[in-house]
Amino acid sequence: MFQSFDTVNDKTRGPARLAALRGELASRGLDGFLVPREDAHQGEYVPASECRLEWLTGFSGSAGVAAVVGEAAAIFVDGRYTIQVREQVDLSVFKYRHLHEQPLTSWLAEVLKPGMKVGYDAMLHPVSQVRKLKSVCDEAGAELVAVESNLVDSVWDDRPEPPLGAVHLHPLEFAGEEAITKIARIGKIIGEKKAEAAVLTQPDSIAWLFNIRGSDVMHTPLPLAFAIVPAEGKPTLFIDGRKLASEVREALSVLAYIKEPSDLMATLTILGKDKKSVLLDCSLAGQALHDAIVGAGGTVVEGAEPVLLPKAIKNAAEIEGARNAHIRDGAAYARFLAWFDNAAPSGDLTEVSVVEKLEEFRRDTGMLKDISFDSISGVGPHGAICHYRVSYESDLPIKPNTLYLIDSGAQYEDGTTDITRTLAVGEPTQEQRRNFTLVLKSHIALATARFPVGTCGAQLDTLARIELWKAGLDFDHGTGHGVGSYLGVHEGPARIAKNNNQVKLEPGMILSNEPGYYKDGEYGIRIENLELVTPATEIDGGERPMLGFQSLTLAPIDLRLVDTSLLTGVELEWLNTYHKRVFDSLAPLVDDDTKSWLKQATRTV
Question: How many beta carbons lie within 10 A of that of residue 47, not counting itself?
Fold first, then answer.
């Protein structure tokens, strides 16, 4: 299994570990220390050796930070994890605060006293974040101090070794563009930014640029590395040489100078001494990188990491790979849904056993590399926890007359998938059918949107909420995130959400479409497809060509939960057309029993 269901957290260890950290604070003459969830690459997934927040507090979510100042200690997580933080963290030791409503900066303003020194690891905190933290400290008469070594590491006796996942070359048939061409293209962008070089800190940017993949973190084929890319000339790749087989090193040496990660700071110092101007994404790059350049006399040009946008706009080969991956994954998913429909009425299934079976169907394709994230498998009240992680400890049986939500994805060498379906087990209530249909209407509104060139995701977000808003309902997560090409299932820079993300949607981007509704303590509903942004085309009688979406995901939507009386003619046509496409695409790839089930599941309504 790619997914583990073990409970690795033990909140009872929190007090002793906090005491050890406070002892380290005293020995270094500090009054406080900040412990972010992120590593030096600011990635969604971090290796076990970098899970400092989890080690200290027990919290295993993908976003958060802990702060210890004097006698006060707090953990900050967002609305996705309000239940999880209570289950995993001893809240008598770490007070819970909402990451956005009660941010770290406001808490520091409350607890800081003049003369206090608060330590932080300058590799783990981006420049933009440090500026805000420093401002708060300055205003309180306190000092923000970059430490030479991380305090948590000093008291973490059984800290795992850093990962050494083997790096492999990503075939051109899937990448669609030679690495040397990508490097030249990115170099030109760097020059246009009036910089002489750029520092890349994002492993997925580096994987895309050099056409490599790795296995340093869970569920995402990333090699942890840094790179310096000049506007002209050969880049330098900073990666642990033990990850490179001889043929991989030979291929990469043609493209870049290969150095160890320990050489990064010295190389940045040389750039600074040479008075170079260096492009740095201050929302992603650690403060230590900025200080190395500027401290040696160089200039930092602030701007988005130059690979982010080109990587998000898939080329023809990547789009073809995504289509193929979704057809393959769709066939496996159809087999899974047919199995579930047959097995669920018995009441013998559990949240864990269903995830295990879904992974089995995906493995049967013979092409599964990994799952793309830990499957969210929630029945009844667990479905209402939008980022619920099932474990053997929390595993619930799937009983008749409940709603079951399964959010899952797969990593294939030609594409990454992410799909959510909500399934009726037994007879759904009228309320459940109504709310499911409202979510479906929201999903269709976004899937059928046409929008002008220059539109950003924030402008489209309302489309996926308006039907819910009319009914006095909403959901507290983003509507859509970018998806990589055999890379991260959550990929920037574009997304569809309420926030002020101003990245314009462009043809070739792949984003999720996943509105939902969650009735706390009872059930959850989400419908998620991945959507490809299609080129702008003319509309009959229109004046401007419009972009649009095409659904890549191919899987039936549970018709038992659809109240067709609430659908407009256009919405009903979309549903029937989509289901016909699902059947036509998948029927040739499944066995007769699944085909028979699929025909019924995609019937015209």
Answer: 20
Residue 64, amino acid: G
Contact 198, 306 (CB under 8 A): yes
Is-contact 322 178, C-beta < 8 A?
no
CA distance 346 to 341: 10
Q: Are residues 210 and 122 in the same domain?
A: no
Question: Which residues touch 184 (CB under 8 Å, ≥6 apart)?
Answer: none
Angle between helix axes 287-295 and 264-273 (nearest 10 degrees) is: 40
276-285 tens-digit pLDDT: 999 999 999 9
Give domain status of residue 232, yes or no: yes
DSSP letter assigned to residue 60: -
Phi, psi (5° rounding) for residue 163? -70, 150
Using DSSP's 3-state secondary structure scheme, residue 114 falls into coil
Total structural domains in the chain?
3
> What number of CA atoms fall less than 13 Å from residue 505's CA on the CB side?
31
Give the pLDDT of residue 7.
76
**Is 438 found in the same domain as 321?**
yes
420: containing domain? 313-601
Per the listing, tokens 């750029």 go with 198
**How far is residue 82's CA from residue 80's CA, in Å, rounded to a whole number?**
6
Torsional sign, CA 119, 123, 129, 135: positive
Task: Tell me the per-residue pLDDT of 18-41, one tens digit each, with 9 for 90 and over.
Answer: 999 999 999 999 999 999 999 999
Task: Kindly state whether residue 162 falls inside one of the protein's structural domains.
Answer: no
For 299-311, write each residue's pLDDT tens digit: 999 999 999 999 9
